[in-house]
Structures are given as C-alpha cells and as structure tokens.
Amino acid sequence: MTAETCTSGRYVLDETRYEGAGLRIVRLANFVTPQSGGLRTALRALGAGYRAAGHEPVLIVPGPAARDEATDQGRVITLPGPVLPGTGGYRVLADRRRVRRLLEALAPDRLEVSDRTTLRWTGEWARRARVPAVMVSHESVDGVLRTWGVPRGLARGAADRANARTAHAYSRVVCTTEWAAAEFLRTGARNVVRAPLGVDLTARHPAVRSPELRRRCAGGADVLLLLCSRLSPEKRPGRALDALAELRWRGVDAALVVAGDGPLRARLTARARAERLPVAFLGHVADQTELAALQAAADVAVAPGPAETFGLAAMEALACGTPVVADAASALAGLVGTGGDTALDDGASYADAVQRVLARPEAHRRSAARRRAERYGWQPAVAAFLAAHDAVATPLPTNQATEQPYGAGQAGR
Fold it and tell me: What does pTM read for this prediction?
C-alpha cells in the first residue's frame, strides 16, 4: 500500500488493500504521545495482534505534523492536532472535517475508537456509513470527574448521561474489566462486552530482576518503592510521596523511584526536595528493557490512580514479580488479588498496605504477583477484541505473520 501524501492540506490515499488481508480495522485515538503510558502500549499490542490474525489495522492519532508510517502494529497515520492545555502535551484530533474525509477515503470494515469524549461523534459517522463501530472504554468518567473534585452525586449524574450517549452511539462498548463495565450497565446499556487487556509475559518476567540495579535505585535504603505513572491529577501520584513520608516517619528506611512525566512533575519534585524525601524522578523511560528491569527491581509498586479501569503499568510490575499496592476504588483492586494489596486514598493507608505486603516472605509475595499477571496475556486479549468486532482470526502466511502480538523490543509505551 502506497503511503499517504499530503498536499495543501488534502489527502491522496491509495486505497489498495493488503493482498489476502481480512478486515480493515480503522482505529482512532486521542491523548497519545511518545511519552504516553498504557494506552499507547495497548494500541500497539492490539494492532500487532490484529495483523497476526490476518486483518489490516490502521491507527489514526494526533501529532505535531502529518505522517503516514508502516509499523509493527500496522499503518499509523498522524494528523496535526492541537495540544490540550494543562495536560502536559496531549494532543487531540480536533479537525472533524479532516478526520471525516480520511475515514471516507479509508472505507473501514470496522471502526474502533479509544476516546469517548471528543471523538464520540464518530459513532454517528459510522452509523451513517453502515460501519460496525466499537468504543473502547479506557477510563471511568465517574472516577475521573471525582479526581477533579466534582462531588460524587454530580459526577455520577454527568457520567451516566455521557455513558448513555456513548452506548447509543456505537454498536458495542468494550470494557476491560467488570469494574469499567459497571458504570455503563447501571444506565441500562445492553451492548457492553468484556475484553481485558494483556501484558507481555516474556519481556516482563521475574528473571529480568537485577540485585545490582535495585541497590543503585534504593541508594542504600532497605525498601524500594516504584511509581510508574503519568504525573497528572487523575493518577494521584502524590499518594506515593504520602506513603513514603508516612513509612519513613514510622521508621521504615524506604526510597521511591518515579518513572513517568506529566504536568505535576515540578510540584512533586519541589515537595520531595522540601521534605527531604529520597525520591528519584526518572521522567519518561522509553527503553522497554530498562523499564522492565526497573519494575522488577522494586520491592513494591504503588498504583494510586482511583480511576484506573485496568492499569497496564501495574500489570507489568506484577508480571515482573513485583507486588502492587493499588487504590481500593479502582479496577486494580480486583486484578491485583494475592499479588499485592489495596489502600484507601491517603498516605497512612498506603503505608499500611506496603507494610502488609513486606511482612510476607519475599519469595511468596513475588511468585504470587507473577501468578496474577499470568492470567492476562496479549493473545487472549487480542482474541477478545476481535470477537467484539465479530472478526475471526485468519492468520497470514508464515512469511507475513507476526507471531508476537507485542513486538519484542519494539513496543513503546
């Protein structure tokens, strides 16, 4: 397929399909950057899985300039999109006319949308074009609104109205956990399906643990905590610092490593300096081998986001044998199980949970973490998403197939 060219803002597309390909599954996503976390990981893994199953995935995302690339996850088209203020660099597909023209030129067999706010209009486009469309719920509207300080009753009412409109606009709504599905089901939606995400159980493995890396990261401390998260309000990254401060007040010699970036980084860095907390801020860790080693090196990973609908970074830590302490209000509370513990939304509760985890024998807690992650590989995740599209797996010939849905050493976050 010839690459798309852009001349004077108009697109000329070669609509030729891959020889022998199955369905053309066009995917739309906002809030994706080179420093993105779980959403970028999921998009790449699912796209690679669709290709391996014999389909033709095309991903459309916003960026600083127009691009059209052939990648391990299929074709990726970037359209210029403005930065959303206050989000730390997230961009959105704001030009509806341009997106609509591109969709019409691509003529998808299926549409998959990973933003149920600014892209919800695509459901109506798909209905008019007679294209089965799926909306993937990557976040809880109710939960996000509450992290922004909206009172519970108002947040629930706004979420119910938004979710009812979303369910009406699309053929199906895909939710990665029962927790995520609950806010749709309470509106009476009948087109909700479950399709959990996955984790690369090969690249994320207890064997990548390095005692030397742990010693360097801990800086001599007895306990090494890890926060692997976007540093934005809905992720509650400050709770990791609250937990660290509480643990040290209790006499626990703990240190914290933060892998991630976002609009709250400067504030968190200033707080750690002012309180003399042993925190290392690494920023976005792009190298997946390095990130896996870091996730395996920690004694406990903290996942304080109360609106998480799955929590890929936490699942990666579990796969590395690192127990996770998650917010009791999030979907992770049901996923972590014996692989960690849960906490209420305050530093003392997180410190309690960390200490409960550390009280277990190390070999026991690390093997339990790995067993929890082994329930969530990418192959069953891809199969579940394809089922939501009513798409069968028709594997490509051996010389074209990609056996690993999550390209080893190539999948970015």
Answer: 0.85
